[in-house]
Amino acid sequence: MNRRTPIYEGKAKQLFEGPEPGTLIQHFKDDATAFNNAKKGVINGKGVINNRISEYLMLKLADIGIPTHFIRTLNMREQLVKAVEIIPLEVIVRNVAAGSFSQRFGIEEGSALPYPIIEFCLKNDKLGDPIVAPEIVVAFQWAQPSELEDITALALRINDFLSGLLLGVGLKLIDFKIEFGRHYEGNTVQVILADEISPDCCRLWDTKTGEKMDKDRFRRDLGKVEEAYREVARRLGVLPSETSEAESAATKKKPQQKKRPTFKLSTVKKKRK
Ligand code: ADP
Ligand code: AIR
Ligand code: ASP
């Protein structure tokens, strides 16, 4: 096995140096944490499933012109991505009140929101990822105003698209968290979708039964955690086969991200200042 240079180990993923400059390998672990690391555990097979689900959703988003970091899947647990400078914000989009939103405002879980609501949280585990007003984001230069505009437009478009896609497989997208980064290429910089989209960072409720099909099963000790992740993958048609990870590692996919014109907003590449 080749020795690789580890770049970063997070709670759910590891990053390694990629084979070409400007690329990284994103490795999905089975480790699970909640409440900013206060609760720890393992969800067997989660890494394999999240790798597949995130690949699938990022490719679908690329198809509609959302710029993403995804390049190609390398094996059962790893994907090649474009290295970005992560914008230190957790961007949360909410369609239905749940989780911390319900707690903060005393709004019953499951209450529909009048329109999708975006919250920015500062990505800082030690501080508990506090919610931050756009004004503060700009004041501390965590993101520029034009980047916040891009992020907002992209997040709403991602929400519309994913809500429809998931509804098609009997899942209601209650809320989700995404991350964006600055991708530098030559003398241009573009805000692109990074990290992952999976049941680790989305709330997904079965449309018929209301059953929770996401990490809340782990957070709230609801049981059948692995089953829920597998079921989401199954519905999306990406459930990994029972072949061993080692066997599947041999199967590599071609580069798949499609190049399409993106938004008229400043998501089009900008000259670096
Ligand atoms: P955490 O850091 O919150 O524990 P993870 O375990 O998911 O989260 O680790 C993945 C890390 O990789 C995250 O910090 C995320 O911001 C970062 N990341 C995701 N995509 C990219 C990318 N394309 N380039 C650089 N960093 C990335
Ligand atoms: N999230 C937030 N921080 C980490 C994650 N994964 C996601 C949750 C949920 C949404 O953001 O998975 O889908 C809102 O979380 P909360 O706890 O603020 O209600
Ligand atoms: N992702 C955060 C953590 O790992 C928050 C959460 O998912 O509850 O602790």
Structure description:
With about 270 residues, the protein is of the alpha+beta class. The protein folds into 2 domains: about 5-80, Phosphorylase Kinase, domain 1, CATH 3.30.200.20; about 85-225, 2-Layer Sandwich (D-amino Acid Aminotransferase, Chain A, domain 1). The protein has helices at about 45-65, 100-105, 135-140, 145-165, 215-220, 225-235, 245-250; strands spanning about 5-10, 15, 25-30, 30-35, 40, 70-75, 80, 85, 90-95, 110-120, 170-185, 190-195, 200-205, 270. A hairpin with a 2-residue loop joins β11 and β12 (about 190-195). The protein is globular, with a radius of gyration of 18 Å. The termini are far apart. Aspartic acid binds near residues 33, 34 and 36.
Secondary-structure blueprint:
Layout: E1 6-9, E2 13-17, E3 23-28, E4 31-34, E5 39-42, H1 46-63, E6 70-75, E7 78-82, E8 85-86, E9 89-96, H2 99-105, E10 112-122, H3 134-139, H4 145-167, E11 171-185, E12 188-194, E13 202-206, H5 216-219, H6 225-236, H7 245-249, E14 270-271
Antiparallel strand pairs: 1-2, 2-3, 3-7, 4-5, 6-7, 8-11, 9-10, 9-11, 11-12, 11-13, 12-14
Helix pairs in contact: 1-6
5-aminoimidazole ribonucleotide is lined by residues 90, 92, 98-101, 175-177, 200-203, 215.
